[in-house]
Request: fold
Amino acid sequence: MITMEHVCKTYRIARRNAGFGEAIRALFHREYEEIHALDDISFTIHDGEMVGYIGPNGAGKSSTIKILSGILTPDSGTVLVDGRIPYRDRVHHVREIGVVFGQRSQLWWDVPVIDSYELLKDIYSIPQSTYRENLDELTELLALGDLLRSPARQLSLGQRMRCELAASLLHSPKTLFLDEPTIGLDAVSKLAVRDFIKKQNAIHHTTVILTTHDMQDIEALSERILLIGKGKILLDGTLGDIEKAAAAASSDMPAGSPSALSAQRSSLDEAIAELYRAYDI
Reply:
């Protein structure tokens, strides 16, 4: 089970105007701005749930994933993942989780993918029998085949993402964090990734937290949705709750307005956009 209670995270960012003079001035008098990435975030996710974690760019999604995976330490609040505090027990914690960042890679660029897997086996101290069993299963489910013998740099984006998913699951994690795993993928690759995630949840009861801007990913994989904006949880519910909230928001607008008309359509993207406008995020 994953629990976050009253979690806050603030970044202090240096700002300056353009120009050489401004650069010199910043050496002696630097101006900072505080960004409240997470502002009193609380939620609970039970074992085996698949949850969509959505919001606009800069809403706090990646900060949440990084705190849950132990990369970042919150300023305040309580975080527990299966009874562990991620940022205090990182060595044990990373053995129990898998993480896939759509815009970052855990594969070594210039060596065959199988060499990266062998190194991950040693890093996670995976028993040989478990490693071989998991590798065979993942190879079949993700249709890796000859991809294992190719360097990561020679793979297409869709092929590499399938290999990234396998890499994150070699050590049999109980929880899987997916940060935009289908970004940039073609339709066929997206369907393959979604189908694999559903099978992984059904077969191994893996808890999945999915952040994405692709609402088709959400519709295909998540029964529960957490909507975050400006560092706050704005809605915790189902797809139906999202659509009801968007319809309620549009009812407060003048009849015939573009926003009101868009909310009458069936697109989940438009419902989400309507909520962004309603919450001013």
About this structure: The CA atoms of residues 23 and 76 lie 34 Å apart. The two ends are 29 Å apart (CA to CA). Confidence is low (pLDDT under 50) at residues 255-266.
